[in-house]
Amino acid sequence: MTETLEACETSARPAAPPAIAVRLDGVTKEFAGRRVLDDVSFEVPAGRGFVILGRSGTGKSVTLRHIIGLARPDRGRVFVGDDEISALDGPELSRVRRRIGFLFQNAALFDSISVGENVAFPLRRHTRLGEPEIRQRAGDKLAAVGLDKEYDKMPADLSGGMRKRAGLARALALDPDLILVDEPSAGLDPITADEIDDLLLGLKRSGGATLVVVTHNIPSARRLGDSLVMLHEGRIVARGSAADFDRSTNELVRAFMASQHAG
Amino acid sequence: MLDRAAPAATAALATVGEVWLFALKAVRESVLPPFEFRETVRQLYELGVRSAPLVAISGLAVGVVLSMHTRASLERFGAEAMIPAGLAIALVRETGPLTAALLLSGRIGAGIGAELGAMKVTEQIDALEATAVDSFRYLVVTRVVACVIALPILTTIMNFAGMIGGYLAETAATGMSLSLYFTSAFTLIDMTDYVPATIKTMVFGFIIATMSSYLGFTTTSGTEGVGRASTRAVVLSSMLIIVSNVILVRLIFFIFPEVAG
After folding, report:
1. Which among A200, A244, B92, B163 could disulfide-bond with A5, CB atoms 3.0 to 4.6 Å apart, if both were Cys?
2. What does DSSP assign to residue A152?
């Protein structure tokens, strides 16, 4: 079943191999006796976009949770840069997490504080900026996602799409060099989804950020992903560029890509 | 039957073990830096200051009722003069601490269980961790410390409100003056009555915050799970308070024999 396609980065390989931002090495994870990830391995070069595709319940979000240390593998190792995040705890784990921005599927905004305070929260915790500068930076991040007028609103007063954008602003507050995004376009209208993609692409191109994106949205995957993997029943069944996926003979990949084209 | 009972017993023991480890972690991290001063102060306000009106009003009512019952009992023996002192002893030694703790297990326990449960099911606790914040320290330790500090203070408020309630009942019944009432009330109690009984409410505060936080942190099954966590937080906190009270009173009698006398 497993099909390994030529990754797009091999066709445009730079002179020196790029630094590896994320590496999963034989990660296996079970929940309540059910194997959710089964010997998953991949590398994400720094500054590139990496997209994880697959049907619901195939372990995509669990993979992201492993990368930020919210889940620990039963077997295998997870590296962020040179740090083995799956073996870290306490202050060392926090140090690595400060370099990572995570946009949750449902945004996961702190509902007891305002939208602006949500974005300011990581700045208050991890910088020594003064109050005016924190407010300025949080406002800038909100402006980048088109929410500069919503600073003082509570998360409950925002639409689903606005909450998602606010969640992205919070994820970007500390200017992370690794951005994990779980379903960036879920629940968004196509225009807003494109705007989010544009923002993420801009961060990758101009800021050199590494993107790891879980999505069902194939147009989005094509734009964001320099390389893609498809998970099925916890295993990687295909990997390569979007063009490789289009040429794939794997029935699952073809069905997935075709259904998205039709949609 | 044994086939069904054995797994249930094993699961129950595992839960007890988990709660025990959770409580030990709360104790350890309460005394080790870094400390979340700002959030602890916020929790002191939310859990402590905002509970004060409930405790004061309840204390006032408890004082009135206790005074009426005490009068009905002591009148038979012609010992009405002992009413303020009897009321003070009952309030300070037992009724005040236990009533305050049970009231607060309702208000604070349900609040913590529901709040942390909702944060768990909406991934807000994960979001805290993802922003490099130790969620246990930020959410649990701050609430535990706030409750341990707030309970003795709220108990003192309840005792005082209860005494005021007792005075109102007495002055309505006999026209007793405020100075005579309080002079009479404090003839039979001293600090050995007040201090151990009030300090034991720190244990009650620890039980409420720890039990409720554990249930919130382990919430599953969406909004239904949040409701269940909230209810269980109140039920289990109240039960543990009542059971631990037996042990604590025995301990107080052992350490302060004069209280038992």
Report:
1. A244
2. T
Is the pLDDT assigned to residue B75 strictly greater than 80? yes
Q: What is the pTM of this model?
A: 0.88
- A125 and B131 within 8 Å at the Cβ level: the answer is yes
Q: Report whether pLDDT(A11) > 50.
A: no
pLDDT at B70 over 90: no
Can you give the pLDDT at residue A4?
46
Comparing alpha-carbon positions, the chain A residue that sits nearest to B128 is A110
Contacts of residue B129 in chain A, CB cutoff 8 Å?
68-70, 97
Q: With an 8 Å Cβ cutoff, are A110 and B134 in contact?
A: no
Q: Which domain holds residue B77?
A: 2-260
* Span A138-158, pLDDT tens digits: 999 999 888 989 999 999 999
Q: Look at residue B176 and tell me whether its pLDDT is greater than 80.
A: yes
Nearest to A51 by CA among A257, A190, A247: A257
Domain count within chain B:
1
Which of A125, A183, A212 should one mutate to test binding to chain B, selecting the residue with the greatest count of B CBs within 10 A? Answer: A125
With contacts defined as CB-CB under 8 Å, which chain A residues touch B118? 111
ipTM: 0.88
A244 pLDDT above the threshold of 50: yes
Average pLDDT taken over every residue of chain B: 93
Q: Does B126 touch chain A (CB under 8 A)?
A: yes
Residue A170: list chain B partners with CB under 8 A.
131
* A to B CB pairs, distance under 8 Å: 49
Contacts of B218 (CB under 8 A, 6+ apart): B18, B120, B229
Q: What is the mean pLDDT of residues A121-148?
A: 95
For residues B207 and B240, is the Cβ–Cβ distance under 8 A?
yes
What single DSSP character describes residue B25? H
The pLDDT-based confidence of A13 (bands split at 50, 70, 90) is: very low
Residue B76 vs residue B154, higher pLDDT: B154
**Minimal CA separation from B93 to chain A, in Å:** 38
First to last CA, chain A: 26
| Closest by Cα among B102, A18, B243, A2 to A10 | A18
Long-range (24+ apart) CB contacts under 8 A made by B18-26 are B18/B214, B18/B218, B19/B210, B19/B211, B19/B214, B22/B140, B22/B210, B22/B213, B22/B214, B22/B217, B23/B206, B23/B210, B23/B214, B25/B136, B26/B136, B26/B140, B26/B141, B26/B144, B26/B206, B26/B209, B26/B210, B26/B213
**Chain A residues whose beta carbon lies within 8 Å of the beta carbon of residue B115:** 112
CB under 8 Å to B177, separation ≥6 — which residues? B171
